[in-house]
């Protein structure tokens, strides 16, 4: 079916279930879901996926789950998660979603707070994790997504499909304002809030994405982000509306999967693009010195080429309004370096593309700010990133960079029908174009509110429907949004200077010797950083023994030779960043004894650093940094 017909029909839909109905009719044999790591591997066509969704929903309905009921879906990425998600929504129920890896107390809170009458869990281990408190909650039905033998009165995945195979969905009257899901915020500073998103919220997002990209039936999309998160979830609904094949991967197998499955698209967070970049850099460092010099020459030349090209095209976030003189000078640079850049592509960059499968049309980055050097690198090697902006409360996409106006460092233009306001934080008066202020959003993607929390809803959404994002940014005269920081993350020095940490942190991690950083300095005279060092770079430089662990070499890192190296790296990268001021200088730094990971609680499921957790656990180090 042509994409234009799909788009026309989508505007007439009232429920997400109808996307699958369309897919089963127009491309029934196309593969919707492919998990190569399941044993045995799982391939499910659009026709079979639609059938399983109906059976899952009908099975729940036969167990007494009704329109408007809540069902807790506690599981992780798999084709069965998608079947369960859509099956729940197909009968007009709503799901409350979270990873099975989340803390036990948080999962129990979500089940209770969401008023879930049933739970769908990853496996027996997840169910056991919730006992015995689960039995005191008003949960009437328990479903396992696994094939394990369930406890008495519960059902596993296949048993529920069998139960629903001869029954129907009950023809529920699902409208665009029907609640689809409760997505609970991370709750790093308080109890998590349940964001209420409707079928209409998601359908609008799918329509908006179609206005940006036209995908084709059978194109391949690699999936790695938590599927219950609004960012990944919305993107999945979009690709399924286009008849694409979703291939599941994970952090252990992603490099292999990129080469083997050769995806056309992938959506991820900056941390993942950074890890791929670092893998390439490590490969460069392992080459003979002569080849390293050649690679460095090409990268340096291509950096100048793409920077000049952006000026010519009017796509430089640091110079959105170039003069004719600026464009003329930049065009001379482009003409002078074009041949060298193309040679670099043939000799070096093409091999990088091949390592990612070689078929990427676009990759999508969101869920946080992507560092400038990553934007530069992927543009140099010919892999185009479409960045975007949004929050869980906005389903999540509000802005996205278009292929024809892909301003690196920017956050894109608004989706159709989406309004953006930039206001003064104190007065809430609109600020002039190009001036920084608090970002407000209004549009069809804004949530219904926080579940059972009218006070928080009223604080987030004003009577006119404007949602307070809590982010700082500005817009250009062409409606390009540029996010500059998070209002609550702003560091205020004792001289009264306000510092946004993200741009400085992005500059710091340009250094090959730095893996992760967190900027600190609230109420201090100067800034400081907590550093997770890049051990592979230190090993390659002969500064630490091979196969070292962070804990084992931590004392060695404080030797003058290594500390002087890091001082030079911090000074150079921070001072070379656009917009540098003397207040941005890093005065003090310390090394941390472990990296930030999801497992140790420092990262969210989408790899964002939980700053408050870092500040809490390393308070002693932070205090010592500024007092010694």
Automatic annotation (TrEMBL):
All copies of domain AMP-dependent synthetase/ligase, residue ranges: 21-451
| Pfam families reported for this sequence | AMP-binding (PF00501), AMP-binding_C_3 (PF23562)
MF-aspect GO terms: ligase activity
The entry's keywords: Ligase
Q: Does the keyword Ligase apply?
A: yes
Q: Which Gene3D superfamilies match?
A: N-terminal domain of ligase-like (3.40.50.12780)
InterPro entries given in the database record: AMP-dep_synth/lig_dom, ANL_N_sf, Chloroplast_AMP-bd_Enzymes
Q: What is this protein called?
A: Long-chain fatty acid--CoA ligase
Question: Organism source for this protein?
Answer: Pseudanabaena yagii GIHE-NHR1
């Amino acid at each position: 079916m042509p994409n234009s017909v799909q788009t026309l029909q989508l505007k007439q839909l009232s429920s997400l279930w109808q996307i699958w109905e369309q897919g089963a009719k127009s491309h029934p044999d196309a593969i919707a879901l492919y998990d190569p790591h399941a044993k045995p591997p799982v391939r499910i066509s659009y026709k079979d996926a639609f059938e399983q969704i109906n059976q899952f929903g009908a099975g729940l309905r036969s167990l007494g789950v009704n329109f408007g009921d809540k069902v807790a879906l506690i599981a992780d990425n798999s084709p069965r998660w998608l079947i369960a998600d859509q099956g729940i929504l197909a009968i007009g129920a709503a799901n409350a979603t979270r990873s099975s890896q989340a803390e036990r107390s948080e999962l129990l809170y979500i089940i209770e707070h969401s008023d879930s009458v049933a739970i769908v869990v990853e496996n027996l281990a997840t169910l056991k994790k919730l006992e015995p408190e689960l039995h005191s909650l008003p949960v009437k039905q328990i479903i396992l997504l696994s094939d394990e033998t369930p406890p008495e009165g519960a059902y596993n995945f296949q048993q529920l499909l069998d139960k629903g195979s001869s029954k129907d969905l009950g023809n529920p009257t699902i409208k665009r304002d029907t609640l689809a899901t409760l997505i609970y915020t991370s709750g790093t500073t308080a109890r998590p809030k349940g964001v209420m998103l409707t079928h209409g919220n998601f359908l609008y997002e799918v329509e908006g994405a179609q206005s940006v990209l036209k995908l084709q039936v059978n194109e391949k999309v690699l999936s790695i982000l938590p599927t219950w998160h609004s960012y990944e979830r919305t993107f999945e609904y979009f690709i399924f509306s286009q008849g694409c094949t979703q291939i599941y991967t994970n952090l252990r197998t992603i490099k292999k999967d990129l080469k083997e499955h050769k995806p056309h698209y992938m959506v991820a967070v900056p941390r993942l693009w950074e890890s791929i970049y670092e893998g390439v850099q490590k490969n460069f460092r392992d080459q003979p010195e002569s080849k390293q010099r050649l690679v460095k020459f090409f990268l340096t030349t291509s950096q100048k080429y793409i920077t000049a090209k952006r000026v010519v095209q009017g796509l430089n976030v640091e110079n959105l309004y170039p003069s004719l003189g600026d464009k003329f000078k930049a065009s001379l640079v482009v003409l002078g370096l074009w041949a060298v850049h193309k040679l670099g592509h043939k000799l070096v960059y093409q091999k990088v593309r091949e390592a990612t499968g070689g078929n990427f049309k676009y990759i999508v980055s969101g869920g946080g700010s992507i560092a400038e050097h990553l934007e530069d690198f992927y543009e140099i090697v010919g892999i185009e990133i479409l960045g975007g902006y949004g929050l869980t409360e906005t389903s999540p996409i509000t802005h996205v960079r278009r292929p024809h106006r892909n301003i690196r460092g920017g956050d894109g233009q608004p989706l159709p029908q989406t309004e953006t306001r930039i206001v003064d934080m104190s007065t809430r008066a609109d600020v002039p174009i190009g001036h920084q202020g608090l970002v407000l959003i209004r549009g069809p993607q804004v949530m219904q509110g926080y579940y059972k929390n009218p006070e928080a809803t009223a604080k987030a959404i004003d009577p006119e429907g404007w949602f307070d994002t809590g982010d700082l940014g500005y817009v250009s005269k062409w409606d390009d949004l540029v996010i500059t920081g998070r209002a609550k993350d702003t560091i205020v020095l004792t001289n009264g200077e306000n510092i946004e940490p993200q741009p400085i942190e992005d500059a710091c991690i340009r250094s090959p010797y730095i893996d992760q950083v967190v900027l600190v300095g609230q109420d201090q005279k100067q800034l400081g950083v907590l550093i997770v060092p890049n051990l592979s770079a230190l090993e390659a430089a002969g500064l630490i023994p091979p196969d070292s662990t962070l804990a084992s070499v931590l004392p060695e890192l404080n030797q003058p030779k290594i500390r002087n190296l890091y001082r030079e790296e911090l000074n150079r990268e921070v001072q070379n960043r656009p917009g540098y001021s003397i207040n941005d200088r890093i005065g003090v730094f310390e090394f941390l004894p472990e990296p930030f990971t999801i497992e140790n609680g420092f990262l969210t499921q989408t790899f964002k650093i939980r700053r408050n957790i870092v500040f809490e656990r390393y308070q002693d180090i932070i205090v010592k940094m500024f007092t010694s």
